[in-house]
Every structure is written in C-alpha cells, then in structure tokens.
Write a structure and sequence with these properties.
With 282 residues, the protein is an alpha/beta fold. Helices cover 34% and strands 24% of the residues. It is built from ten helices and eleven strands. It has a nine-stranded mixed sheet, with helices on one face. A two-stranded antiparallel sheet has the order 6-7. A hairpin with a 2-residue loop joins strand 2 and strand 3. Helix 5 packs across helix 6. The termini are far apart.
Length: 282
Amino acid sequence: MTLRGAVLALATALLAATCAFAAQPELVRDRTTPASQAADAALLQSLDHDVFLEGSYAGPTGKLGYRLMPPATVQQGKRYPLVIVLHGSGAIGNDNIRQLGALAMSWSAPALRKRFPAYVLAPQFAERSANYKPSAVDGLLAAQPGPNLPSLLALVEQLKPQFAIDSDRIYVTGFSMGASAATQAVLQNSGMFAAAAAFSGIAPERAAAAQLKDLPLLLVHGNADTENSIVADRAMFAALQRQPGGAKARFIEYQGMEHMVPPDMLFSPVWRDWLFAQHKAR
C-alpha cells in the first residue's frame, strides 16, 4: 500500500469511527435529589398562569385556544424567539388552561424568563394532535398528524406580524403526545422551524428521516417508559444517522426513567442554551 493509500485508509477509518460514535445516544441518569425536587416543585407551584395571556384563533381546521407569554421586557426594535410548547393527551379540551403544564410553566420561572426572553405559545387542542399506529415497515409505533396542526401553523403565521417575533428562531417542543405532534408540525412546514425538542414522544415513520435530517432535533426519552416506548425514538435516531452526510439530531436516553420530562431538565438552562443557539438555515 502506498503512503497516500495508507493515509486515505486511516482517514476512512477515523470517519467511520466518528460516525459510529455520533450515532450513539447520550446515556444519562436523572441528577436531581429529593431536596432539589422539592425545591423545583415549590417553584412550579409559585408560578403564575396569568403571565400567559389568553387568546383564541379560528383556524382552517377549527377553533384553537391558546396562551401566549411575552418576554418580561420587550425592547423597541428587537425581535425575540417564539417557543411553541405542545401538551400531552391529558390536557386535551377547550378550557384554555390545562395545557399550561409543567413544561410550559417552566418557561415562566423568573431566572429562565430573564435568561431566555421569548414569546412562549401554549395552544390547547380539542382532540389529539398526534395519533399512533404500527409501521408497515418495521412494526414499531409511528406517529401521524392530528387534524388540528394546520390551525396551529396558521396561528403562528398570524402571530408573527402582530408581535416582535424573530422568524428565524421559531422552536417547537412538547411532551408525550405533544412531542409526537412537534415532529409532525415540522414535517408539515419544515421551513417554519429552527429546531425542535421532543420529550417522551412517538417518532414519525422512519422514512421521514430524509425530511428531518437538516433540522436540529433533540430527542429525550426514558428507557423505562411503558406508555410511549423508547424503541420508536431509537429507530428514528438510527434512521437519521443513516442519512447522507449524517443529521443534526441528538438523542438523550435516560436510564431507568419512566414517562416524564426529566426532572433535571425541567428548569435546566443547558438544553435551552442549545435550543436558542439554533437559527433557521437560509
């Protein structure tokens, strides 16, 4: 073998090793303690729902109630990210309050609201925003969009000119059904979103990896989740890693965690720093 051939072989081996490493999920454990959990619970209890202003939108697929929290201070001439927080199935309804669960309310914690000034949109769906059925390809569950996502996307388009929203920094996140709906929203309008974070959801059909590969996507799931099994997220992450050139996805797998937003991520600035660093590609 020539020197050039040896160099190329080494480079190929290093690239393969790098890709194999990148394809691995980030394996972690919840790092909270009973004391920190109690403090977080007290903080969550102290937060005021009224910082989320009430609104209603007559969308193309039906009426959509929502709450919108503006930045604590809006500076003249400045534009702010929009964070969309999608609720789980337990908040389905039309009271326009139950969607303000822990994940949505966490954004109103004073320290986070100061560090991450943004508009935070929490819509409430009157029916499921995502449904699941076994994939004909691999037999694992795959999410499908609920009928109400077009109204959500239309609402975002209506809000953009009304408020100081940075169109290049629109993020979508959610828990459980809301996590499943978050990736479905991206698939319906990939040009709208700069990044997505999905907690304990069901991934789309793995063929959708081709549409999601350029999106900064954070998948977070516990491997003891018996409500939404982690296996669909694992399969989607693997499919994303197989895309030409790789993908921009991250997968955080919590050891021994059940169906929940990880307690040590609820008020954490770390994943929010990652989210706010993303800008829509042009």
